[in-house]
Amino acid sequence: MNDPIIPNVAHSSHAVLQPLSSLHTFGLMANCFQYQTIDTIDSLVMLLPKLQFKPFILLGDGSNTVFTQDYEGLVLKNQLHGIHVSQDEDNYHLNVASGENWHDLVCYCMAQKIYGLENLALIPGTVGACPIQNIGAYGVEIERFIHSVEFLDINTGLMGHFTNRECAFAYRDSRFKRDTDNPKVITSVNFVLPKQHQLVTSYGPLAELVDPSPENIFDKVVEIRTSKLPDPAIIGNAGSFFKNPTVAREQFVQLQKAYPNIPHFSAPEGKVKIPAAWMIDQLGYKGKSIGGIGCHEHQALVLVNHGNGTGEELLALAREIRDNVQSTYGIELENEVRVMGRKSAVIL
User: Fold this and answer.
1) Closest-CA residue to 63 (of 151, 122, 145)
2) CA 231 → CA 26, 67, 159, distances in Å?
3) Active site residue: 118, 143, 313, 336, which one?
4) pLDDT at residue number 2
5) Which residue from 53, 109, 248, 295 puts its CA 20 to 30 A from 219's CA?
6) Which residues, in sequence order, are bridge partners of residue 36?
7) Is residue 319 annotated as a catalytic residue, yes or no?
8) Strand duo 146-153 + 56-59: pairing
9) CATH 3.90.78.10, the chain: domain bounds
10) pLDDT over 50 at 255, yes or no
11) Class of domain 13-78
């Protein structure tokens, strides 16, 4: 496959105090003292000495990260761009730089009549984040279309790649997320999209479409997400704060006896997935706030910054929700959003 098309622009650096509120969509007030942008792979490689000896965090659009305190490490802003498309008789092959906006890529594919990503429209973030999180929505997870992921291995200083299998994808998870002792900076993602594409309309609202097409699936997903989720440009948030948990079927049977109307979905390995939003909503958290941080009034799974929220308030509300779900349902929620402290991720 050909190399990605990436503009040859020199990276910029800033040694002064850098506000982070505009670099993550939750918008909490925090700063860092070391901040650099990455425009080329060469500029990334030049930073290796710093990356190998001090904490760092790579940001795309900042839509799945929240800074609860001033960050003492190095913040890197990913601005790697470029899309290269080739095709054979059966498939389209896309090599996409990791700094590309995800929804912009979906729109690009729709315009080119390259289908498969329409269910994943309007998911915030960059292409580089999609394999880390194994993003998914409305019956589709991105792992089904990822051929391989290219990266810079921080420990060795070498470029490398993982095949789909080597990425070890799981629900909202991957090898990149789990292997914290061997950090890797994703530089591009290789996708394979079949020309004979099978539409996925298993999710409720999509099943109601008459004569579905990729275009009206895309339109419906955008409509649903726009109506259900708050716009970070209007009110700070990072989307769904917690993952939807999966439980053993035996545990679900007991829960269903106590809560006959509990919604649920089949999950791999015979497990059952339970919507975290339902449990949080049942506990009365929709619209509830601690200081400037609250649960969105229409979607309890989304924590929001009303404009004056603090990291302490965010952690307090998230931990209260987690503890109450645990004590009521016997289920431990895991945050989907990456919550950052002074040097590393914070464990709730």
Assistant:
1) 122
2) 11, 19, 36
3) 336
4) 35
5) 295
6) 13, 76
7) no
8) unpaired
9) 231-340
10) yes
11) alpha beta
Confirm whether 172 is a catalytic residue.
yes
pLDDT digits (tens, 9 = 90+) for 60-118: 999 999 999 999 999 999 999 999 999 999 999 999 999 999 999 999 999 999 999 99
- Please give the Cα distance from 54 to 37 (Å, whole number): 17
What's the mean pLDDT in 129-138? 94
Instruction: Identify whether the C-beta of residue 247 lies closer than 8 Å to the C-beta of residue 255.
Output: yes
Contact 224, 205 (CB under 8 A): yes
**242 DSSP 8-state letter:** B
- Domain 231-340 matching CATH 3.90.78.10: the answer reads yes
Give me the catalytic one of 172, 175, 225, 342.
172
Give the count of beta carbons closer than 10 Å to the beta carbon of residue 229: 18
**What pLDDT shows up at residue 274?**
96
Per the residue annotation, which of 63, 98, 174, 240 is the catalytic one?
A: 240
The answer regarding whether domain 83-223 maps to CATH 3.40.1080.10 reads no
Cβ(18)–Cβ(70) below 8 Å: no
Q: What is the pTM of this model?
A: 0.86
Any catalytic annotation for residue 240? yes
Q: Which residues contact 1 (CB under 8 A, 6 or more apart)?
A: 84, 86, 93, 95, 190
